[in-house]
Amino acid sequence: MAINEYIKNIQQEISNGKSYEEYVYLFEEYKKYLESVIEQNPSDITAVCQYAAVLMELRYSSDDSIKIMEETLSQFENELANSERVRLYTNLAFYYDENGNEDKQIAFLEKAVNLKHDTPNAYDALAVCITTKARCINTTSDFTVALPLFEQAARLSNEFRYQYNYATALYIAGNIAKAKNIFEKLYYQDNKNKNAIYGLGVCSYYLDNTKTALEMANLLANIDTDDEVDEFQIAELFYLCDDYAKHNAMFDNCKIHYYYDVSWLAPYFYCLRALGKDSELLQKYKEVVRSKTEEIKDAKAEELDDSYTVENRNEYVAKLQKEFYDIEEAYRKIIWENDKPELSPKLYFVYGCYLIDCPRHQRVL
After folding, report:
1. How far apart are the C-alpha atoms of 48 and 35, rounded to whole Å?
2. Which long-range contacts (CB under 8 A, 24 or more apart) does 228-236 make?
3. What is the structure's pLDDT at 256?
4. SS3 category, 302
5. Maximum Cα–Cα distance for the chain, whole Å?
6. For residue 255, what pLDDT is reported?
7. Which of 146, 276, 333, 359 shows the greatest Cβ crowding within 10 Å of its Cβ?
8. Residue among 21, 346, 52 nearest 199 (CA)
9. Averaged over 190-217, what is the pLDDT?
């Protein structure tokens, strides 16, 4: 079999729902095949990149993947076409990310981007690094540098991740109308993708289209998928649209309770107040007070040892007491000042495998 045939077979086995143990033999066969190709032609970049990926699939250390790619670069870098160097740089960045070496990861992504090739992976991955890790070599303004990178990735590919991340970057930068247009296109392409729906809903709210925002919130509440939008975010959208009953219902039906987090508790209190459910509000407040008081008591009684010192305990108790004070203050303002807590919904970037030569994810003809 040739390389493309191996990749197609591997992807077919995975799509059929087989377990790793059932298809790992393909990776083992593929590894032997690639070794023979590399032995005959050590500068075959496709074979080298595939081999490094297969080592990861077979659960070798990322150091092993890095080693063969670094050796290839050292021996052939000056002879390679830009497209081949971009592959090596981007793939190496991925392995250094796996290895926890952020400096090397960013350095190789920058080398890939500086070649200005038509591969979106490096642009998007570097932009995500800049915005989420707030680190980039030779930059003064992280987001000013990141936004054009997101834009370039979106220009090069219509793939959901690149379009969504660019729209999210635009939203963060304050260009909500342009972000909304992209989210809307993504929504029409897939009206069950919760990330696209949420982005469209949030942008619609800020563009004074509450009707669409509420429509998106209702749609989100009735879609059961594995996307990253959670009950907390959906509840926020209901809250912004003044649908207080559905806001609280999202939390009442949620398996995870956020009683100690004032960021959700204050809006929950306010919704009960706005719905005229004062007795339920008082009961919920007393329940939270009891729980928080017990938590503080337990924290003060926590045993000390070498890894948990008196300073650690005092810091933790102070943190809990601050949370308790914030909850009390939020409740007081809602009851006596009819204060409506403010919410500022956040959009998050979509992460994904940016390994160019990934037998699992890459497209093959």
Report:
1. 9
2. 228/194, 228/195, 228/348, 228/350, 229/194, 229/195, 229/197, 229/198, 231/256, 232/258, 232/264, 233/198, 233/345, 234/198, 235/264, 235/267, 236/267, 236/343, 236/345
3. 66
4. coil
5. 80
6. 67
7. 146
8. 346
9. 96
- Residue 260 predicted with pLDDT over 80: no
C-alpha distance from residue 45 to each of 56, 120, 360 (Å):
17, 19, 18
Quick check: 139 pLDDT over 50? no
Question: Quick one: tokens of 105?
Answer: 């990861």
The encoded tokens of residue 129 equal 């690094």
Residue of 231, 333, 226, 343 lying closest to 285 (CA atoms)? 333
With tokens 């929950």, the residue in question is 268
Spatial separation of the C-alpha atoms in residues 214 and 189, rounded to whole Å: 20
Confidence class for position 259, pLDDT limits 50, 70, 90: low
- CA distances in angstroms from 359 to 11, 26, 36, 344, 354, listed in the order given: 7, 11, 18, 40, 12
* Count helices and strands in the chain by DSSP H and E runs: 17, 0
